[in-house]
Amino acid sequence: MSTPPVTITGRIAALLRALSAHQAGGATTSALARDTGLARPTAHRLLAALASEGYVDRDQRDGQWYLGPELYLLGEVAAQRYDVTHHARSSVHRLAVATGESAFFSARRGSETVCLIREDGAFPIRSFVLYEGARFPLGVVSAGLVILAMLPDREVDAYLSRVDLSSSFGDAHSVSSVRARIALTRRDGYSVNPGLVVEGSWGMAAAVFNRSGEPAWALTLTGVESRFREERRVELGALLLREAHGLTRVLQG
User: Fold this and answer.
1) pLDDT at position 16, please?
2) Same domain, 102 and 197
3) What's the pLDDT score for residue 5?
4) Residue 1 placed within a domain
5) Shortest CA distance to 90 belongs to which of 237, 253, 219?
6) What is the structure's pLDDT at 22?
7) In whole angstroms, what is the distance from residue 142 CA to residue 106 CA?
8) Same domain, 179 and 221
9) For the residues of the chain, what is the DSSP string, one character each?
10) Which of 17, 38, 79, 215 has the CB geometry, 3.0–4.6 Å to 147, for a possible disulfide?
11) CATH code of the domain containing 72
12) Which part of the chain is the IclR-ED domain (predicted)?
């Protein structure tokens, strides 16, 4: 359970973020209360108020909550300024076709990464750690690791001093372990997640930079361990870096 936000705005924002992570199948009030650290009556009251304005929607058959139509309309307007996925889709498609693996595009939002695009390659065995809408803290999964690694040391130090990744994701996400993977990522230019979130599900990622030179997005490949042997990781890393560099040039242009 996360620490519950104090302000009403923070509570609403937390509920909407939590609901976006469940969007494919919806979420119950209890699940959203658990994810946000809110009391169930508080979560229900806020969800009902959001539903009255169209920001969330509830299926009356099973009680599941979903993001509502008003958010779609607002998102269409906001996308005119912020949406970069139309540029990223070509990179994701090329990676999926060239490797046969599942390819992704994720964006940094504060101290998290959010998966925006997924495309599966031809290889029949999939990894479902990442999906559109999935959120992970920086330093977790390959996208979060590569973005964290490309931040200045002072930002990395400040972030790792205030978060406890190991309590949610295990000892492999202790500060010393994350720092060791940051060093490897900086050396290679791309990150590797050797099945640390789900055993046997590997991922690799390269950062995409905004006009300020900050790591704002990531391109990722995921698949089963047998497809990520050392010799192939070099090949996959080169492909990721090529696409990430090309996309960076487009987005900075």
Assistant:
1) 92
2) yes
3) 78
4) no
5) 219
6) 79
7) 10
8) yes
9) -PPPPSSHHHHHHHHHHHHHHTTTT-B-HHHHHHHHT--HHHHHHHHHHHHHTTSEEE-TTT--EEE-HHHHHHHHHHHHHH--HHHHHHHHHHHHHHHSSEEEEEEEETTEEEEEEEE--S-S----S--TT-EEETTSHHHHHHHHHTS-HHHHHHHHHH---HHHH-GGGSHHHHHHHHHHHHHHSSEEEESSSSTTEEEEEEEEE-TTS-EEEEEEEEEEGGG--HHHHHHHHHHHHHHHHHHHHHHH-
10) 215
11) 1.10.10.10
12) 70-253
Give me the amino acid identity at 12. Answer: I
Long-range pairs of 152-160 with CB within 8 A, sequence gap ≥ 24: 156/182, 159/111
**Can you give the residue range of the structural domain that contains 13?**
8-76
Q: Which of 54, 76, 98 is the last residue of a domain?
A: 76
Domain count, the chain: 2
Which pLDDT score is estimated for 23? 64
pLDDT for 103 equals 97
Is residue 230 located within the same domain as residue 248? yes
Is the separation of the CB atoms in 16 and 9 below 8 Å? no
Classify residue 54: in a domain, yes or no. yes
pLDDT of residue 25: 81
pTM: predicted TM-score of the whole model, two decimal places: 0.75
Q: What is the mean pLDDT of each run of 10 residues along the chain (253 residues)?
A: 77 90 84 93 95 93 91 75 82 97 94 93 83 90 98 97 94 97 98 94 96 96 95 97 97 86
Query: Are residues 65 and 98 located together in one domain of the fold?
Result: no
User: What's the angle, vertex CA 194, arms to CA 88 and CA 132, rounded to 5?
Assistant: 35
Residue 121 and residue 223: Cα distance in Å, rounded? 10
Asked whether residue 19 is domain-assigned, the answer is yes
pLDDT at residue 3, rounded to an integer: 67
